[in-house]
Prior knowledge:
Number of strands of chain A: 5
CATH topology of the largest domain in chain B: Heat Shock Protein 90
Number of helices of chain A: 2
Oligomer: heterodimer
Helix content of chain A: 10-25%
Structural class of chain A: alpha+beta
Shape of chain A: globular
Largest sheet of chain A: 4 strands, mixed
Radius of gyration of chain B: 53 Å
CATH architecture of the domain at 23-79 and 86-106 in chain A: 3-Layer(aba) Sandwich
Structural class of chain B: alpha+beta
Largest interface: A-B, 51 and 52 residues
Number of strands of chain B: 20
Shape of chain B: rod-shaped
Distance between the termini of chain B: 139 Å
Strand order of the largest sheet of chain A: 2-1-4-5
CATH class of the largest domain in chain B: Alpha Beta
Radius of gyration of chain A: 14 Å
CATH topology of the domain at 23-79 and 86-106 in chain A: Glutaredoxin
CATH architecture of the largest domain in chain B: 2-Layer Sandwich
Number of domains of chain B: 3
Amino acid sequence: MRRPLGPPAEALLIDEAPAPDAPCYVLRLYITGSTPHSTRAISNIRKICEEHLHGRYELEVVDISQHPSLAAGEQIIAAPTLIKKLPLPLRRFIGDMSQTDRILLGLDLRKSPEPASPAPHR
Amino acid sequence: MSSPAPTLLEENGDLRARLDEAEDALGAIRRGEVDALLVESADGPQLYTLQGQEAETNRFRGEMLAQVSDAVIAVDTDERVIYLNAAAEQLYGFAASGALGRTLAMIRGARWLHPGDEAAAKAALRDRGEWRGENIHVRHDGTELNVESGITVLRAISGRPTGMLAVVRDVTERKRHENQVLVSEIRYRRLFEAAHDGILILDPGTGRIVDANPFMTRMLGFPHSDMVGKELWEIGLLDDDAASREMVSRLKQANELRYENLPLETRDGRHRNLEIVANLYDEDGRPVIQCSIRDITERMRTEEHVKLLMAEVNHRAKNLLAVVQAVAHQTAKHGDPASFAARLSDRIEGLAASQDLLVKNQWQGIEVADVVEAQLAHFKDLIGTRVLIEGPRARLAMAAAQGIGMALHELVTNAAKYGALSNLVGKVRIAWHISSTAHPAFSMSWLEDGGPKVAPPTRNGFGQIVIGRMAEAAVEGVAEIVYRERGLSWILSAPVENMLAMVV
């Protein structure tokens, strides 16, 4: 995979009507090519977003396998890494995004851990 | 004075969050969920992959797929996009960053060309693990693309399906071109099929017919199958194979060849005249000969007919001028010079009436009654009372019509001046009949009665010549003129064949 040449991720949001009161999430996922972890991370985070942030998120997937410099300034130590840029505070999540509960918690989408969470997508 | 507690709490919360992140990172590395580590250096971040050879292989595969011109797109079992190459980004107008993780249906729609195609594709993927075929992909902006796809089910080592890999080729342009070619083919095939000229397509290499339109069959009587594979001479269009070879060789030099008038006998023995125009042209790098063949038999017949008519008109015009000349000469010779112009004009009018009838009947002869009525035009009010006309239907030949017409004109003029039509009671009876003898004769009579008393003329005027010698000459018959006291009697007889037009 490579840095995309096509239109930006915002283009995808045209037909997804945002909820007026809820905060809009800006997320960026750093991956390294089409490895199993990367592809799983993409699928898992997209699923979480569509289920919990439908219509009010912007997700950009950045492949740093060819150009690690794309990660400069983001304080990334491993890939895959998801960064919640907005709403503040900024948060980072590492791994294949299969720990749905931890991610929901970190995204402020769930206030406390629930033991009976659905099985992650692996 | 403000309390420092909230600031400390914030800092504490931030530190806790960073600690959590550090723990997360360590946990993820331990669980084997991390592909690579990034280390800051003076040259910027450096990437250290944790999967060794596998990572290298993945990178190599990714590079290869990025280079291919076909769109490559992989989805997981939920049909979420897990990979798309640069060509796929271009094809669907989607950046990988926005497309990855989304369902395929959000990236592009699909439409099937025929009912049942979708079910067939699903069955092929289920049963064989792969499908190849054509359908239509609809981009996010509504653009429809004709695509050829090859889809393979991806499996883990255990055999469990993990998703699908599609290789998609955009064939929209090719399809458009194919459609244009198809439309053009239909259009020109229809011209070829419906043409009212014969068209033959020949292979210049062999000189043999490769295609013939239906009109060729109508023209020559050969079914299509009997023409294809034959040389022109074999279907009678040229004399022999040497002529066929010569045609091809001349065509190669001149590119166009015309045979103005080729006589031909059709399969069922009809004689036709043909005109052939042969062209050598290039058909997508391959030379072909096209012969357009026109049946000019009817045109030639019409041309011949026109030629014949022109000669006939010329001949008749000369004849008529000779008659006019004779009439003028005789009119001048007999009678008062002071009335010459009036008499000549009167006689030419009589001739013209017969001429009109001849033209009207296309020189094919005139009904006797029509000749009589044309000459009696000035007395048509008397027809049926003082002028009685009777006789069977019969058609006078051209010369007879002219001779009898002139004679009747003289008789009418004479009767009006001196005879039965010069008073208020005289009558004229005009009759004709055909005798039913072994050699049938046609006779025509003019009998006057009730006019002033008649005395034979003291001198032989032109009128006498017209009703006598000229009438006899026109029908090769006999004219009998009797100057009865009670009225003139004129009887012209001749064999039927001299008098009447042949019934065609």
